């Protein structure tokens, strides 16, 4: 699909208006500006970064506010934007994950996992290498597709469809290179539940819980919900400092990631405006031509790019009459809501877990409170019925064990990523009336595993699903800008026929996590959108 633009003779304020200063918006803006286009980025909040920001939430204590850990940030984006030169430093966790149990624990990390698993099951330890190799074979193939736009389905004749048919053939060639075992694994991982997948591999509950946690991160579902195996796989695409599958911490918190991106944008010449909420995308003769801001001012452009959740863009900023009826209906039914309740805590000291009471490298890990798949399944059922889990799933990170810039000497900050909670509470209840009650429950849950934890808390920052939507535009608190289900992935993200970052309105593009490859702090949607936009601009400018 080519996009008609105003000619160079027609005066506009800028080539590109980009709505939303989250990480994908910054990445897209940087690539476009580096290619020579004039770009103005508009962010409604007073600070750039979207959900990847660092704030002081208690005197002397700073932490990542929403996004909280690094792995999925694409190495090509890091290199192209030279983020290290712009101040980004990422350090690897000393231990990958720590799973407390009532009378024991399980650690996972380089050189640790096999011997740890063997304490629970010799059979599982023997199977571990084969499991990791087969999972990596699939993950490595899909990793190569992250920076490619999916084949797009078109209405129309062969001439219009040919480029995407060729792309489909290329995709078939990549997948054809997989062994038959890997092809079968790929089918299983896209269609099965994580619970069924893991039950087929392992017998011990702790190892299944440790791996199964990834299947419900940002996914309001049971680990036994079909399709949750893909969410597990999605979290394996990343790497830290060249080490595949590793997780790390950005020194200075997640705001350091987006501040480095903003620096790359400024160097490339992007105009960055904060406190600039957009009220409407303007169109002229069926194409996007600018925006109106909340203050009533307007800006004109040759194209408009949105980094917003698709529901916010198409249901809030675009005239419904400019959209096909079926497209509007699909967006209305686009599913969001990741069951997330996010907290930051200021701590006077490190917690001491009953199962491993002395401080150590395990406190640099992702600390997973969710000892079995059955526990996670009950948490989801509770949330669907009551609004939140009586025994919630929590991943706690203590990033100050790796980064002494976040807290005063001898004290610490903790990130609590809590699930499951309902995006909207049943019976008409409002999250604003229950956020403190649920925050108390989350702290009490950690206190069960680390007695005395409640007494360590000096201050807290709370974000319910409603808070996350209100503050960051995460609809239903959805950290991925839309569920990672088979009907909302790859060529169907966000809607079949518009997987190439182009919308039904000519000159209006999307670069956010509501496009391929989906959520997480990856930068890939921004990278891919910029490539497609530059292809369209190149065609017009050459003429």
How many β-strand stretches?
Answer: 20
Q: In this structure, how is the largest beta sheet organized?
A: 7 strands, mixed
- Percent strand equals 15-25%
Could you tell me how far the N terminus lies from the C terminus, measured between alpha carbons in angstroms? Answer: 16 Å
Q: Counting H and I runs of at least 4 residues, what is the number of helices?
A: 17
Unreliable sequence segments: 1-9
In short:
The protein is an alpha/beta fold. Helices cover 35% and strands 19% of the residues.
Describe the structure.
- The protein is an alpha/beta fold and 543 residues long.
- The protein folds into two domains: 151 residues, FAD/NAD(P)-binding domain; 298 residues.
- Helix content is 35%, strand content 19%.
- It is built from 17 helices and 20 strands.
- The strands form five sheets. Strands 1, 2, 11, 12, 13, 14 and 20 form a seven-stranded mixed β-sheet that branches.
- α1 runs parallel beside α10 and α6 crosses α9.
- The longest helix is centred in the first third of the chain and has 22 residues.
- The two termini are 16 Å apart.
Task: Write a concise keyword list for the protein shown above.
543 residues; alpha/beta; FAD/NAD(P)-binding domain; 2 domains; 17 helices; 20 strands; globular; disordered N terminus
Spell out the blueprint of helices and strands.
Blueprint: E1 14-19, H1 23-34, E2 39-42, E3 54-58, E4 61-64, H2 75-80, E5 90-92, E6 97-100, E7 105-108, H3 113-118, H4 122-143, H5 158-176, H6 180-191, H7 194-199, H8 205-212, H9 228-234, E8 239-240, E9 243-244, E10 248-250, H10 255-268, E11 271-273, E12 278-284, E13 287-293, E14 298-306, H11 310-317, H12 325-332, E15 341-347, E16 366-369, H13 373-386, E17 388-397, E18 412-421, H14 435-449, H15 453-456, E19 457-463, H16 465-472, E20 508-510, H17 524-542
Parallel strand pairs: 1-2, 1-14, 2-11, 6-16, 14-20
Antiparallel strand pairs: 3-4, 5-10, 6-7, 8-9, 12-13, 13-14, 15-18, 15-19, 16-17, 17-18
